[in-house]
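Section 5.1 Outputs to date
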Amino acid sequence: MDKKTILIIEDDTDLQDGLSFSLQSEGYQTRAASTVKEGLRIFHDQGCDLLLLDCNLPDGNGFDLCARIKGELDIPIFMLTARDTEMDEVKALETGMDDFMSKPFSLAVLKARIKKLLRRDTLQVPLCSGDIRIDRNTCKVYKNQTEIHCSKTEYQLLLYFVEHAGRVLSKEQILDSVWDSQGNYVDENTVSVNIRRLRSKLEDDPKHPEHLVNVYGIGYIWK
């Protein structure tokens, strides 16, 4: 099983290093950033399974960042805040925060809560990206609340892209993950054909896609 990746956005470098070391000792892979801008770059370029962020950052705040990321992809977000007020709790809930703790905090409790977030039954949570929603319980796809009928292969391909949103994926990666995992041999043209079919169903203008975009000479990216 692949290691879960946690992106830490914290401007206190000592705390950042301590969190990284402690979480790595638990078997997680970590990435770290000190600003909103750097954190967003890492999130879009490399992705993560859980976001652990500070409330106050040099170029923004965790609440706004949480709302922005939740609008792109539904992943667990855990906030660390220097304050412990009812207003912060209300604001956290309104922005879609999954959990938060005030500083100073117990590292053991933090790790237990992170573990719980990562182990929750993700099949019960729809996977959303922009105007696209995937219900993994029923294997149905919706665009702006309207159901989009996809074949089994199209559904698996879309799920793979959305789960790796913001990452450039080569045709070889897509073949390995969507087709070779089933033990079926296919050629690269199969990827292109199925992507064209997906675009015709999901994009407002399939010839000028906004979601499933070509990266010339490399592969594709889901935006």
